[in-house]
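Teaching assistant's notes for section 4

Start the section by putting this record on the projector. Ask students to predict, before seeing the second block, whether Ribosomal protein L30e (RP-L30e, RPL30) will look compact or extended. Collect guesses on the board.
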Amino acid sequence: MDLARQLKQGQNSGSILLGQRQTMSACSKGDAKLVLVAANCPETYISDLAERHPDVPVHRVEMVNRQLGAACAKPFPVSALCILDPGQSDLLTLAHNV
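Reveal the predicted structure now:
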């Protein structure tokens, strides 16, 4: 799967939130269907997320935060994002791997 292409498609046709705070907030509200974290996302954040919201699948991608930000067409690093609505993308097929 070309993750950058799927992220672009998801942003255009669905709803994706970027950033650790927005991701945690969406998980708290029960809106997040999947969380993607960068390879260099802090372990404390990932463990806190998994502890508070064990029902939300978390997938660690092989990109570091700068690459994930670029894949989302953003000029800044993105260490975490959540999928609220995948739109026409296949992002929800990513397996829980954290």
